Amino acid sequence: xxxxxxxxxxxxxxxxxxxxxxxxxVMAEHLGLHTVGDLLHHYPRRYEERxxxxxxxxxxxxxxxxxxxxxxxxxxxxxASAKAPRGKGQRLEVTITDGSGRLQLVFFGSGVHKPxxxxxxxxxxxxxxxxxxxxxxxxxxxxxxxxLRADTEESVETWAGAxxxxxxxxxxxxSWKIGKAIQTVLPxxxxxxxxxxxxxxxxxxxxxxxxALLKIHRPHTKADIADARARLKWDEAFVLQxxxxxxxxxxxxxxxxxxxxxxDGLLTAFDARLPFTLTEGxxxxxxxxxxxxxxxxPMHRLLQGEVGSGKTLVALRAxxxxxxxxxxxxxxxxxxxxxxxxxxxxVEMMGELAEGGMLGGSERATKxxxxxxxxxxxxxxxxxxxxxxxxxxxxxxxxxxxxxKVKFHDLGLVVVDEQHRFGVEQRDALRSxxxxxxxxxxxxxxxxxxxxxxxxxxDLETSVLDQLPAGRSPIASHVVPAADKPHFLARAWxxxxxxxxxxxxxxxxxxxxxxxxxxxxxxxxxxxxEDEAEKRPPLAVLDIAGHLAQGPLRGLGVEVLHGxxxxxxxxxxxxxxxxxxxxxxxxxxxxxxxxxxxNATAMVIMDADRFGVxxxxxxxxxxxxxxxxxxxxxxxxxxxxxxxxxxxxxxxSTLDGFELxxxxxxxxxxxxxxxxxxxxxxxxxxxLAVIEDEEVIAQxxxxxxxxxxxxxxxxxxxxLRTALDALLDEEREQYLEKG
Length: 739
What we know:
The protein is an alpha/beta fold and 739 residues long. Helices cover 40% and strands 18% of the residues. It is built from 28 helices and 21 strands. A 7-stranded parallel β-sheet has the order 11-12-10-13-14-9-15, sandwiched between helices. Helix 21 links the parallel strand 18 and strand 19. The protein is globular, with a radius of gyration of 30 Å. It starts with a helix and ends with a helix.
């Protein structure tokens, strides 16, 4: 929201720098701050009161922290070392306290003289450094510090009550240096042009933007901070929602062919052969989709729901409706395993209705083809021919579908499965294959909190399936602490045997494949904190499968499945498992979505702490898909008090995917939500928290829709247009445009 030339002024210029060139360089490289406006929008993470000391008890390991504390004790020690063999080495140990805990600071060598003079007992200061452990005690080695002295003009009360802003900082630039730089540019805040319409700002009692910037960086009271944050949250929510509302408005102007199913056609025939009735939720969501398909502008709808809620069936009915109306439908899947699995289950559900042009096929039938990158030439040529002639009403494929040589007769609907796995350009390329823009249905198997859906998928209308089909069984989930209680792991393998003895099957999931290529990659790659803590690589499919087949599961049919197997081998393994010929499938996360084997009732996830919350919920959804109860065992060696174990306990405690998605989001950095992995852009969310600020986001969406309906070009609001330009750099513009 860098709205005027003064705010767009670069922090570093060839002739005249706003800040020192070294400071400006660090800000650009490490904090992504390039202009005066960027710096003004670099808000404090929190505030300290001079008279109130920090909770040292809460400081995290291995992080760069800033603390405000008082010196309790300072001692200078002499020692002998290689550099100072005569015992002339010096080490200063300073203990600081905040009443709740103590922390040791250490300074060595010539670096001891200044702190020895400055850091006398009773002195208050800000300290910044990376927290490490020495002799089982937390310490900061050679921290930077800034003494907090009462100015002569200030009374002691004013000084003690002043609020010190602590900024997101880096090892190369401490919080107080950022604060001083911001004080230098703060006068420019007066020149910020307000992006919010006056009526909205006044109606919601929000302070003007210049005042908000002053109050967030130089608050006199906590009420100042609250005023500033309330205002700046609205800026972020509103500008983003206006961008999305304009996207929806533009989509509504595009032409599309209405697709209305025939009264007694393919869809009716399909519904008649279903061996069960649709849930109320499936009927309601299908109604929303059919209403969209009947309009003369493209549907843009997000279909999300619980694991196992029957999203694929809803999507298939939409595809059949389009085929009924003379068009074609394409389902884009993220992996070959999933494309093959979808193809098998669609053909199975449709029966003779999937045998168009074949002997024994119904007269209302169509052809269902699969298209993947590894198909043989003859099969591929036939599939391409079926698409261009219109013989195939439904095609299911991977990214191979978006290649230039793939041509459709009349593409009417694109269904994207697992939306987050596809790049923006890939989805856009498939949508461009229609004579007119096709309708778009995005399915996500990971439940998303409502506010995230409004923020990330705000240009899509949302349908939610939160009702499981009748006959689905509950899944019992338990954490297996393998290091603390090894006999629990032995019992887990006994439980797998019991399930197999009862005629069922089981999955064992590992984070790694374990072949040579994988090992090389593992050694070269950067180790996660868990790897460092455990001093071992994650467990691997090939190692575990061998161990189980010769040990705890000896005598059972054990097979492996992973992403680097040849496609025909993967397909053969899945077919054998689906047919019940294999007792236990040891796999990577290739089975995470879409794999449907109702007879599989047990899942053991090895090194479960290496997976995210949503991924564990996805994996668990592969069991309990039939009438027998499901069992999911989360095996981990992480200690009971660790954050990783708390995450696993959360997964074990609930089957509610929407609740887990909230937990998942709260544990990740705020700002991941804008999908910058896809957009490549820095997150624009600085004070808005998508989980906590649900009300602000919902209200901003309503206000944005109202504003854009009245003035789509924002002709009367130049400040808002400029703010949009600042938010929507080219990459994010494309991300929103094609999402």
